[in-house]
Amino acid sequence: MKKKFLDLGRQPITNSFLNKNTIKKNRIKKEFFYNLSAGFNKKNYLVSIMNFVNPKKQYTNKYAHRASQSKTMNESFKKIATRLKKRFKPKKTLEIGSNDGVFIKNFKKDKVIAVEPCGNLAKITRQNNFKTYKDFWSQKLAKKILKNNNKVDLIYSANTISHIPNLSEVFKAVSLTLSKNGVFVFEDPYIGSVIKINSYDQFYDEHVHLFSLLSMLKILSKTDLSVFDVEIIKTHGGSIRFYVCKKNSNHKKTKNLKKLKLAETKQKLHKFSTYQRFSLRVKKSKKDLLNLLSKLKAKNKKIISYGATYKSTTVFNYCNIGKKFIDYVIDTTPNKQGKFTPGKHLPIISPEKGLDDNVDYAFLGAWNFEKEIVQKEKSFLKRGGKFIVHVPKVRII
Ligand code: TMP
Fold first, then answer.
1. What share of residues in the chain are helix, strand, coil (percent, to 5)?
2. pTM for this prediction
């Protein structure tokens, strides 16, 4: 049973950007909202949101996020693809949640299978001649894939497994699909980093779970799989990458497991009180951010937001930040431009149009790309423009 520790209030689906017509015809009353709160399971140490949204409402043909839009992500997927090929030499690889193909494009077309439920994204990898199954990951799909293919040596998944409520189904399907010594490598935002840098905006409808090693060890103890290696990586402000194999395979457990287990025990990721304290820091972060924005507005500063991210949807709806503070949001993703942010209905435009000379401050909704963006927007900073970031503390750069 989950015990609640955090309440982020009424939230919309982070991916449901609104179009002009909806706004004009005042159809926004129909916008879907749910209560976003997070809880901790004392039995398996898993942190999850309390209310799951129906995946069919989330992963549609209009899914906006395109992983290949970011230079950082292109580079990081290329790097991990190269490392995995070298370490495991897979004859066949399968990716769960292949988005627009940012990872699989690093593989030969006949050596990789894509699984992606969002129609618009599956279409892209299909058009690029990658074998693509437009579906949710399940045992049923695994059986369908195995009708036409041998078992695979490598299953990879980034920012997808944490989106799936039923983890037992995920691992059963993985187990069916993996060859005897095959490996399942998956990475998702890390609860240890969320606690450390106060990135409460990692909680949104899609992030159903936020994993730790301690929780994964408990969860997998009930399956025929086990973790044999683990890494903490910088992606998305701190992610955890698990290396999982069948319990009867030939993979040896690495020292990284022991080390991280110790670190997580020290951080008390297995204690409810850790999450209670975190929720107090979240409340303070909200107060600090609202204070800062109010002060700047009192001085008539023009504030915009940089990156129409899912994370900023959580921040804006939790802190009640709307047009009073933020004029508009800029984002490089073409299918977000011209639309309005979920819940707060801030217009989204391109950086070319929006980052004009009148902008004094830009709230960095895409704070996980701080380095890439600061590098790219040197001229904005040079002319006196400033970024506002809310992690690890509300600050100006
Ligand atoms: P994500 O944090 O969910 O990956 O989303 C990042 C968003 O930020 C995505 O919509 C693209 C946008 N973005 C920009 O607009 N400019 C940039 O330079 C980068 C790196 C991202």
1. 40, 25, 35
2. 0.95
Atom of ligand 1 nearest to the CA of 310: 3
Return the ligand 1 atom nearest residue 67 CA: 4
User: Residue 165, preceding bond cis, omega within 30 degrees?
Assistant: no
Q: Which atom of ligand 1 is nearest to the CA of 306?
A: 15
pLDDT digits (tens, 9 = 90+) for 106-123: 999 999 999 999 999 999
pLDDT, tens digit, 9 for 90 and up, residues 236-285: 999 999 999 999 999 999 999 999 999 999 999 999 999 999 999 999 99
Report pLDDT digits (tens) over 71-97: 889 999 999 999 999 999 999 999 999
188 and 54: one domain?
A: yes
pLDDT at position 24 over 80: no
**CA–CA separation, 131 and 245 (whole Å):** 24
Q: How far is the CA of 354 from the centre of ligand 1 (A)?
A: 15
Residue entry with tokens 């799909």: 141
| Total domains present in the chain | 2
Q: Residue 84 belongs to a domain with what CATH number?
A: 3.40.50.150
Identify the band that residue 27 occupies on the pLDDT scale cut at 50, 70 and 90.
low
Whether the Cβ atoms of residue 270 and residue 261 lie closer than 8 Å to each other: no
Rounded CA-CA distance 323/307 in Å is 16
C-alpha to C-alpha distance for 155 and 388, rounded to whole angstroms: 38
333 CB neighbour count, 10 Å cutoff: 17
Distance CA 279, CA 8 (A): 10
Cα gap 99→222, rounded to integer Å: 30
- Centroid of ligand 1 to alpha carbon of 239 (angstroms): 17
Report CA(160)–ligand 1 centroid distance (Å).
18
CB 391 within 8 A of CB 367: yes
Which residue range(s) make up the domain with 31? 2-39+273-396
